[in-house]
Amino acid sequence: MTDPDFRSGFVCFVGRPNTGKSTLTNALVGSKIAITSSRPQTTRHTIRGIVHREHAQIILVDTPGLHRPRTLLGQRLNDLVRDTYSEVDAVCVCIPADEKIGPGDRWIVEQVRQVAPRTKLIGIVTKIDKVSKERLAPQLLAVSELLGPDVDVVPVSATSGEQLEVLVDVLASHMEPGPAFYPDGELTDEPEETLMAELIREAALEGLGDELPHSLAVVIEEISEREGRTEKQGELLDVHALLYVERPSQKGIVIGKGGARLREVGTAARSQIEKLLGVKIYLDLHVKVAKDWQRDPKQLGRLGF
Ligand SMILES: Nc1nc2c(ncn2[C@@H]2O[C@H](COP(=O)(O)OP(=O)(O)OP(=O)(O)O)[C@@H](O)[C@H]2O)c(=O)[nH]1
Ligand SMILES: [Mg+2]
Predict the structure, then answer these.
(1) Neighbours of ion ligand 2 (CB under 5 A)
(2) Which residue, by CA, sits nearest to atom 11 of ligand 1?
(3) Could you tell me the domains of the chain?
(4) Cα within 13 Å of Cα(233), Cβ side
(5) Strands 236-245, 217-225: pairing kind
């Protein structure tokens, strides 16, 4: 029987880099479908996460953090985010509880209003576990002033889980009545290959300096099923991936002394991928230089941007 009160729709998360959009997406979906890191500009494509509740299905569109672009990659990411504003029922502007509202936030709000003047806005104050109640109150007020008196502002913490269900209810209240878009249990429409490449990139980002994270891109070259496995051994996938950096000097950093760093990345990524896909994998990683790919239209195309 169809539920006449069932609501469904699309919501996108926007905000400056590093404001917790992907962590919040994962927390609401209940599974790690988007990679996260303490480095700004971790997310590089829009990722759909599906939130299933008894009376609603909400499709979250996590987007790359918005900032003034310095490279062609930056420009492409900004365009991508702008395209999603008008395709969703509501845009959630994410602002961390522990950082002052700045010109970057105002610029994002202006962009949203310009591109999608009729799309509903919602304010989300993220990372509330990092501040006291006394510090949170003025931040909620400031976000409310930024977005206007008619806009809902919801404080949440993705890491402690505080207020997550309140946020789901607020999002659902902004959806139109309608049937689910995705079958029960489906958590994302990311292809497995993309999920694998992203988990490898996440593992490789860990512990890198300030500049290298932006220079890193991961491409899955080949996935094949190992032959001759017995039923007891179970399925094994051979996954071959290339890690691209922009300069020869970066190659050594990613590989590490005697290959130690790359081996660590492989081990960490393999365990994440096996957890996500529920199948054993053999992961083969190689590092290559694609000179200044962030600024080169041809290379960007090849890397999927
Ligand atoms: N304490 C705390 N930290 C958080 C919370 N949410 C995210 N973080 C941390 O903030 C950092 C950035 O999180 P991400 O989810 O990658 O941020 P993002 O907005 O997706 O970043 P970009 O993809 O670069 O735009 C990570 O180190 C997270 O662990 C939270 O609720 N509480
Ligand atoms: Mg992100």
Answers:
(1) 21-22, 42-43
(2) 38
(3) 7-173 (3.40.50.300), 192-302 (3.30.300.20)
(4) 10
(5) antiparallel
**Pocket test residue of 16, 19, 29, 36 for ligand 1, highest count of atoms within 8 A of CB:** 36
Could you please report the per-residue DSSP string of 216-237?
-EEEEEEEEEPTT--TTT--EE
- The protein residue whose alpha carbon is closest to atom 4 in ligand 1 is 127
120 and 128 Cβ atoms separated by less than 8 Å: no
- Whether the pTM exceeds 0.85: the reply is yes
Q: Is 41 in the pocket of ligand 1 (CB under 6 A)?
A: yes
Per-residue pLDDT of the chain (305 residues; tens, 9 = 90+): 578 889 999 999 999 999 999 999 999 999 999 999 998 889 998 999 999 999 999 999 999 988 888 888 888 888 888 888 888 999 999 999 999 999 999 999 998 998 888 899 999 999 999 999 999 999 999 999 999 999 999 999 999 999 999 999 999 999 999 999 999 999 999 999 999 999 999 999 987 877 788 899 999 999 999 999 999 998 999 999 999 999 999 999 999 999 999 999 999 999 999 988 889 999 999 999 999 999 999 999 888 88
Ligand 1 atom 10, closest CA: 20
